[in-house]
Amino acid sequence: MFSRKLFGALAGVAVAALSASGAMAQAKDKIKVGFIYVGPVGDHGWSYQHDQGRQAMVKALGDKVETTFVESVPEADSERAIEQLARTGHDLIFTTSFGFMEPTLKVAKKYPKIKFEHATGFKRAPNVSTYAAKFHEGRYIIGQIAGRMTKSGVIGYVGAFPIPEVIAGINAFYLGAQSVNPDVKIKVVWANTWYDPAKEGDAAKALLDQGVDMLAQHTDSPAPIQAAEARGKFGFGQASDMERFAPKAQLTAIIDNWSDYYIARAKAVLDGTWKSEDTWGGLAENMVIMSPYKNMPDDVKKMAEETEAAIKSGKLNPFKCPVYGQDGKEIECKGNGALSDEQVLGMNFYVKGIEDKIPQ
Amino acid sequence: MRFELMPRTSVSPVARALAPVVAFIISFLIAGFVIWLMGRSPIAAFDVYVLQPLSDPWSLQELLVKATPMALIAIGLSYCFRANLWNIGAEGQYVMGAVLGGWLALNTHGTEAGFWVLPLMLTLGIIGGALYGLIPAFLKTRFGVNEILTSLMLVYVAQLALDYLVRGPWRDPKGFNFPQSVTFDPSATLPPILESGRVHYGFVFAVIAVLVTAVILGRTLFGYRLKLTGDAPRAARFAGFNSSATTMTVFAVSGGLAGLAGISEVSGQIGQLQPSISPGYGFTAITVAFLGRLNPLGILVAALVVALTFIGGESAQILLKLPLDLTQAFQGILLLCVLAADALVSYRIRLVTRGGGK
Predict the structure, then answer these.
(1) What chain B residue is nearest to A163 in terms of C-alpha separation?
(2) Keywords for this entry (chain A) (predicted)?
(3) N or C: more exposed end of chain B, with fewer CB within 10 A?
(4) Closest CA of chain A from B82, distance in Å
(5) Is residue B337 part of a domain?
């Protein structure tokens, strides 16, 4: 009797100890976090903002995290750099460009215990999450501002590559502009680069020469907005607040805020609660932030703030149906009152009114 | 007062052999000094840059992966450069090899096509690069157009052609409209030499190219003709060697090897076609060819050394948190030192104090 009781108690302790040790194996006291950047940390755009997120993580989590980054990693030759992070004891690895998708998956397969986070991709695995931001929400707002502010009636856009994210950005920008100025025209120039200040500046100047007085950009350096500043025209910051490069020209900037996400994901690994997920955050989730509205009349500023609030609350979707294609035909509405996420993520058509042609 | 470079009357083979070694030591001293100025340990940096990659099997294998395309392209370029023909467009020939070979991979995708796909792909890669290399050669021999300009400009044409294909007709229909092709089938994938490794058969091709080139240059009339065309074009013409035929041949060989590098990289390493399939291998290979003094074995060594600086640079970022700019500066210093050492072995500096100069 006694012995059976004792045995039962012992077994209970053993079970408790087992489950405790199971939990211990999951949670960690300290982790190493690695980052792969496609550009230099000093681009003041895309990679710069990811590095800001890394620094915010270090600030928030202190000595619980040790971080490493590798910058300017060519997409065609990134597998080695990712694997090098995996081999040097990193627990969580962020690969921050679309072109790192296949290499990330290949390395993740070899290192199943390490967690990977791939930005802007669409392929996941048990240890690979994806994350991206709804930049097009911000682009709708800057489109409205440009539509109201333009005097020439022609607004310009420096695009990087004709991939869905950039196309969706142009469409959202133009739909915003059209919503306040139905006759507005848009000119698009493709720089065919994410980061090349000289090329981006040339593209911007070509647009300004054609009479554009509002300049939006989807490339990472401050060169386009600086060109606008030099000509006394207006522009919008990309990825980071570019006010210091163009104090008179910047109306606002669409800031990529990865900090909250990076801190949350590192915490999840520390707590042992990390799961493979797909995150697509916008203004509401603070992943996209508008820098202060400046250099514009009060009524335009008020409109921008109202639009921002409406998008945040979910009242307004930049791609609310009906959306018309370039040929004037209505695009099938696959989402709930707006285009579906898949339609936006894979967008390869221009909306009605854009006279440019998508290079293919 | 000015400096003049005077050719040395005799150069000892020992000095010639030691020149690159001395160049290495000097460039490491300079880089070490910079690292010391940054408040870091130069010894730790040397360990991470050089010793660790050379002592770890994984890094050694990565070294071969990285060196493969550069070695293949540079071997090809050495044919051109020996004949004093300046093929600057290997990057474009690399891309066109990948495009033509990739075409077959995409057309057999999802079919029961068998073992013949891969050899045919590689052959198409060679043909694609060779034909593309023949364009500047033809323009030069037929119309006397400068091959430096045409070969360089054709790089952009090739890159934009690939860009067009992966955004348009060759785009993966299930890829959310992102500019990339489907991933190649196993039948169109160049396998790794060791099952679990990353070194693919492209490295074997590079070694074969080195050996064959060594034999051609040392033992054949064609190799002799090549040297003569480069060193003394008039003498070559008097000897009855046709310089047009030589031009066409070396551009075809050079383009073919660049094309082979392209299709090997795409099918063995990347696994699909995408807008960017090279971090500038075709241009780095020019450096590699000269670092290796246009000697086949030298080129193989030079490719490994350049690969080491890339991999060491990544390790330095990860382990020492040293910036990438330092790696790039180091690559520049290394090249300068090697070229300077080479020049100083063959020439001596003379200080001219009076007359002559303006």
Answers:
(1) B178
(2) Signal
(3) C
(4) 30
(5) no
Q: How many residues does chain B have?
A: 358
**CA pseudo-torsion sign B181, B185, B190, B193:** positive
Tens-digit pLDDT profile for residues B40-82: 888 998 898 888 889 888 889 999 999 999 999 999 999 999 9
Rounded Cα–Cα distance for residues B53 and B64 (Å): 11
**Other CB atoms within 10 Å distance of the CB of residue B30:** 16
Task: Please give the single-letter amino acid code of residue A314.
Answer: G
Instruction: Classify residue B345: in a domain, yes or no.
Output: no
Q: What is the pLDDT along chain A (360 residues), one digit of tens a residue?
A: 344 444 444 444 444 444 443 334 468 899 999 999 998 888 788 999 999 999 999 999 999 999 999 999 988 889 999 999 999 999 999 999 988 999 999 999 999 999 999 998 889 999 999 999 999 999 999 999 999 999 999 999 999 988 888 999 999 999 999 999 999 999 999 988 888 999 999 999 999 999 999 999 999 999 999 999 999 999 999 999 999 999 999 999 999 999 999 999 999 999 999 999 999 999 999 999 999 999 999 999 999 999 999 999 999 999 999 999 999 999 999 998 999 988 998 898 999 999 888 876
Handedness of CA B168, B171, B173, B178 (dihedral sign): negative
Q: DSSP readout, B47-94?
A: IIIIIHHHH-HHHHHHHHHHHHHHHHHHHHHHHHHHTT-----HHHHH
Which chain B residues are closer than 8 Å to A159 by Cβ? none
Distances (CA, A) of B151 to A297, B77, B135, B136, B287: 54, 12, 8, 6, 17
Nearest C-alpha of chain A: how many angstroms from B205? 20
Residues A299 and A327: beta-carbon distance below 8 Å: no
Q: Which helix (H) or strand (E) holds A347?
A: none
* Domain boundaries A135-253+288-345, corresponding CATH code: 3.40.50.2300
Closest Cβ–Cβ partner in B58, B179, B314 for A70? B314
Q: Is B276 helix (H, G, I), strand (E, B) or coil?
A: coil
Tell me how close the Cα of B60 comes to any Cα of chain A, in angstroms: 12
The total of structural domains in chain B comes to 1
**Edge-to-edge order in the sheet of strand A154-159:** A185-190, A154-159, A214-217, A234-239, A250-256, A288-290
A75 lies within 8 A of chain B by CB: yes
Eight-state DSSP code of residue A161: -
Q: Are A293 and A251 in contact (CB under 8 A)?
A: yes
Alpha carbons B181 and B162: distance in angstroms, whole number:
11
* B51 phi/psi in degrees, rounded to 5: -70, -45
From the CA atom positions of chain B, what is the Rg in Å?
22
Tokens of A52: 């800001």
Tokens of B172: 């993966």
User: pLDDT tens-digit profile of A290-331?
Assistant: 999 999 999 999 999 999 999 999 999 999 999 999 999 999
Homologous superfamily, domain A29-133+258-281: Response regulator (3.40.50.2300)
Cite the residue boundaries of each domain of chain A with CATH code 3.40.50.2300. Answer: 29-133+258-281, 135-253+288-345
Asked if B167's CB is within 8 angstroms of A360's CB, the reply is yes
Pairing assessment for the beta strands B2-7 and B347-352 based on DSSP bridges: antiparallel
Q: Which domain holds residue B261?
A: 68-285
What backbone torsions phi and psi does residue A70 show, to the nearest 5 degrees? Answer: -120, 125
What pTM value is reported for the model? Answer: 0.82
Q: How many CB atoms lie within 10 A of CB B163?
A: 19
Which of A51, A73, A77 would best serve as a mutation to test chain B binding (most B beta carbons within 10 A)? A77
Contact A236, A257 (CB under 8 A): no
The continuous run of DSSP H or E covering A4 comes out as: helix A2-26
